[in-house]
Every structure is written in structure tokens, then in C-alpha cells.
Amino acid sequence: xxxxxxxxxxxxxxxxxxxxxxxxxxxxxxxxxxxxxxxxxxxxxxxxxxxxxxxxxxxxxxxxxxxxxxxxxxxxxxxxxxxxxxxxxxxxxxxxxxxxxxxxxxxxxxxxxxxxxxxxxxxxxxxxxxxxxxxxxxxxxxxxxxxxxxxxxxxxxxxxxxxxxxxxxxxxxxxxxxxxxxxxxxxxxxxxxxxxxxxxxxxxxxxxxxxxxxxxxxxxxxxxxxxxxxxxxxxxxxxxxxxxxxxxxxxxxxxxxxxxxxxxxxxxxxxxxxxxxxxxxxxxxxxxxxxxxxxxxxxxxxxxxxxxxxxxxxxxxxxxxxxxxxxxxxxxxxxxxxxxxxxxxxxxxxxxxxxxxxxxxxxxxxxxxxxxxxxxxxxxxxxxxxxxxxxxxxxx
Length: 396
Fold this sequence. Notes:
Layout: H1 2-26, H2 35-48, E1 51-56, E2 60-66, E3 74-80, H3 107-123, E4 131-137, H4 146-152, E5 164-174, E6 178-180, E7 183-186, E8 188-197, E9 201-202, H5 212-230, E10 238-247, E11 253-254, E12 257-266, H6 269-289, E13 293-299, E14 305-307, H7 309-323, E15 328-330, H8 341-346, E16 349-357, H9 378-393
Parallel strand pairs: 3-4, 3-5, 5-16, 6-15
Antiparallel strand pairs: 1-2, 2-4, 6-16, 7-14, 8-12, 8-13, 9-11, 10-12
Helix pairs in contact: 1-3, 1-9, 2-3, 3-9, 5-6, 7-9
């Protein structure tokens, strides 16, 4: 039985997958700089005898596993490969060797999982029909996102897959489980940059100044009210202004300029566009009414991620068949963002969450923190399930 063979191979390849993950974890590279990571992936695929191209989107790798009747149906699997600018605080043997760079979002586990799944699939290629594209994608963490570049450079063409599946680590979910949600799942993410320019001077003489700090305070409050009083409550939105600083200024000095940086996220594209205009108009109007100038810039980021309902429902059932019903959970909407969303815009896509937490082992830290880690037991499940899902989506 093919399912049992996959489980046996996953058990056999588990330790190798751990070693791959640890190598990548110790040698992280930032977005658009993943040269050695791409070379390592290429080397592994060559060892496995899997045909591939290295260099798409600069550091990405595109592989192909052909089963019997390879043109019958083609699907894709994706993993991201970049790390984050975070100084790791974990005291582990596989701690990052690069000061201030860390795989704090689990992309090392994603890459190792896809390599492990690829090895399984390649050993089973005489037992399924169709072909599987492997997308090892750079630069998920920084705009414009490696997914958009991969698509632009033809990763989904020649041949064109009919669907794509990806996964992401999820520390709140226990190792041994996965979770997913059909339909809209993750939010769009835009960057907000605001500069308020007034006229600085002595803090004791505000009547001679145009105080950009006071004006910025009004703008911040007004922007939050736009979101809280205009967004559809059924489709959550969030505006977070994460940085504010001034050019000059002190206890007794009013500065000339204040800068804000933040993020705006939502699930509704119509409201997303409307909110951009409302926020810009409000900020500029407040500044103008108080004698200042406001430059309001929105850098459009990733779109909302949409899990094709049919593919997601099928994926859930296939996962239940492989893992047991108790190990497959339903997930809520999530206001984080992912450039996998670009794939979901051009073909049926399913993005699920891999449980990586283990309270008994003290593995509970969220992603994007300096103590993030995974329970590596999850990698056996990960490589086996991904291989199983690919074969089921091919119709075998």
C-alpha cells in the first residue's frame, strides 16, 4: 500500500531531514541573499537524482519529479528559503553561525521538509501518474516577495501546474498535528510611511512653531478611527504604527519633522483600496488644517491569501486519512501575511499549518522571536504528509 510505503520512507529519511534543517538553520541567509542556500538545495536534489534548475529569481531552485505518464497532470509544492535579521538566543548545537541572522520563521524547516518529501516522491515515481514541480523560493520576508518574482520569471510555466500546495510552521499547534482553513485565510499586508513637516523652535514658545508632534498625535488617532469605524466587522482589519521618531527635538526643542512607519492589513481588496485613500486624505487634511505638510505613502504589499475551497477540503480529508482525524484541526482567519498569496491568485492553492510546538520540551516561542525553535519530531510527519498530499492531488 502506497501510504504505508510513504510512512516507512518518512521514518527512514527523518534523521536526514533533521540534519538538513540544522545545516540550513546554522547557515541562514537574508532575503535576496540566499546564494549558499540555493547551492545547497541544488546539491541535495542532484544527490537524489532529481532534475532541476538553479537560479530562478536569482537564488531559487525549480525541480521536477516525473511519474508514469508525466504529462497527465502536473501539480506544484513550494517552500521558502530565506531567514530574518534576528540575533538568535537559543543555546543549541545548531545555533545560527551568522551574527544577527536567524531562521526565526521556520523556513529552514520548510526547505528541509520539501527536500525530504522530494526524496520520498522520487523513490515512489513509478507508483503514481503525473509530475510534481518543486519550488524552492527565495525572499518571502521582503517586498516585493520572491513568489511574485518566481511567477514573473516563469516558475509556473512550461509545464504549467494545475494547483499548488505549501505549508508553514505553527508553534501554537502541537507537533504531530496540522491545521488549515478553506477560503480566505491570511491578510494582505501594506507598508505605511508618513512624514509630517512643521516648523521647529523653542519648546517654551510653541506659538512661534508648527508642532509636528502634536499634529502627528492627531493623525495617529484619526487613522485608527478610520479603521475602527469603516471596516466591515466580519472582515477584520488592523493598522499598526510600529515606529515614530523626530528629526531633532529634545525636552525643550520642538522638532521640524516627525516620521511614522506601520502596516495595514485586511482581507477585503475593495476596502483595502478605499482605506488607502481615506487614510491618505485624512492625514494630509489634518496636517494642512494645522499649518503643516504631510507626505503619506502606501507601499502595496502581499495580497490576501485564498485557499481554494475544493483543494483545501480535499487536503483536509487526505490529511485525516494520513494522520487521523484527531490530528487535523480547523484554523481561524489570520492577520499575518504570506507571499504564497500570489500563487493563490493565479491557480488553485492550499496553504496549511504544520504543528511544531511541544510544551514538555519547552518549545513554545512564536515565530519572529529570537528563541523560536521547532520540535524536530514534526519533520517525519511533514515530509510524509507533503508527499502523500502531492500524490493524492495528482489523482493517484
